[in-house]
Amino acid sequence: MQLFTKLLSSINHPIRSCLFALASAVMLVSCGGGGGTPTYTVGGTVSGLTSGSLVLKNNGGDDLIISANSTSFTFANAQVSGATYSVTIGTQPIGLTCSVSNGIGTVASANVSNITVTCKGQYAYVTSADNGTVSMYAINASTGILTALSTPTIATGVASAGITINPGGTFAYVTDLVRSNVSMYAINASTGILTALSTPKIDAGMGANLITMHPAGTFAYVTNTNFNTLSMFAINASTGILTALSTPTIATGTPVEIAINPAGTFAYVTNQASNTVSMFAINATSGQLTALSTPTVATETSPAGITINPAGTFAYVTNQASNTVSMFAINATTGQLTALSTPTVATGNSPAGITINPAGTFAYVTNQASNTVSMFAINATTGQLTALSIPTVATGNSPGSITINPSGTFAYVVNFDDGTVSMYLINASTGILTALSTPTIAIGRQPVVITVK
Which residue has the higher pLDDT, 275 or 34? Predict the structure, then answer.
């Protein structure tokens, strides 16, 4: 090295600089011809890919197949500094939904290694009133078709009714109409199978019907149809176990369903016998409900289902005996519901379940006596529902609960009399439902509620 230093000092400056660069390999430069441009890899980490294979794309090409249980990835084609990259999902693994974080950027003279791919199972759960079970399914992320899990059902009690899942997707809760309690389960992140918690059940009120989770996953509320009350519970974040609040119940009308606004500040309960919606403020610390200064708002006859749009600005109620949906604006400060200028929209016969897609652009109503789903567009400004160009789609007999997967691509309807679930593709542009290639799957007798995670 000493000889090389002397050599450098003995030759003229431009050549000396070039030789030094080559010798030290600090960077690749051209000394009057030849050489090359440095390139850098694009990659990152993978988690949750427990089965199947995933295809990633970079800039719409350069397909990379990632096998099950992989924890990292690197695209084959390296990039020069200044090149842009855009990593997206090409093909989802069966039964899992994968998402990309930090997938878009520009190469900056270094390997890209901070892209994260996270995969989670998509599962559906259906309660059965006839045999007191929950049926468990994997959702094919590409086709939407439900496939029974390796353990297809779990016994809950006598007449399983409502089911809800916490936002983290780790715990599930099931009501029993006859035993008037709530069964509590852990959800296996890899398989989707439910397992009873160490404390498997907790009492609710008579006729424990439907159950709703607070958006923060901290509290749960059950409509007790026979007691005209709501039961209120705190949720242990670590164990998932429910504990009754210090004031365990609050009076309502004849409650059917409860909906909570996305901010978690207000709750609304349909009262079927009194043709009203009860309105409550939610204490963020204790979970306690308190009736608003105007405690109820009128609906039409026999209100049942209720849902709130993702923005938390409008609420919609199905009126089973009026064959309508009541539409309300939500006051963000007071929580008060106010009927829209056009207060109702017509549905089919005996509307029951209602849901809204995650984008908040379309609403869907099951019509129990018509065996259809009514489909509506939602005006983002006024909240008004307008029937789609194809206003209904056929279901099985006596459709009830309806749900949409988190991606907003598929819809599922339980058919009480048929013991089936109808499965649909959602057109992202038009909102129209189209039956899947396998249009139904058998569940068992008297399915009541379906939910997905």
Answer: 275
Tell me the average pLDDT across 131-145: 92
Query: Which residue spans of the chain are classified as CATH 2.60.40?
Result: 39-119
Q: What is the CA radius of gyration of the chain?
A: 28
pLDDT for the residue 114: 96
3-state DSSP helix/strand/coil % of the chain, to nearest 5? 5, 55, 40
Q: Strand, helix or coil at 206? A: coil
Residue type, 440: T
Tell me the per-residue pLDDT of 97-116, one tens digit each, with 9 for 90 and over: 788 999 999 999 999 999 99
CATH 2.130.10.10 for domain 123-452: yes
Distances (CA, A) of 191 to 41, 69, 187: 34, 14, 8
**Where in the chain are all domains bearing CATH 2.130.10.10?**
123-452
d(CA 44, CA 112): 7
* CATH pick for 39-119 out of 2.60.40, 3.10.20, 1.20.1320, 3.40.50: 2.60.40
Structure tokens at 66: 């990632």
Looking at residues 328-352, what average pLDDT do you find?
98
CA 395 to chain centre: 23
Number of H helices, E strands in the chain: 2, 38
Q: For residues 126 and 194, give the distance between their C-alpha atoms in angstroms, rounded to a whole number.
A: 12
C-alpha 264/C-alpha 278 separation (Å) is 16
pLDDT attached to residue 35:
60
Q: How many CB atoms lie within 10 A of CB 393?
A: 19
Q: What is the pLDDT of residues 185-208, one digit of tens each?
A: 999 988 899 999 999 999 999 999
Strands (E) across 357-427 are located at 362-367, 372-378, 385-394, 399-404, 410-415, 420-426
pLDDT at residue 6 tops 50: no
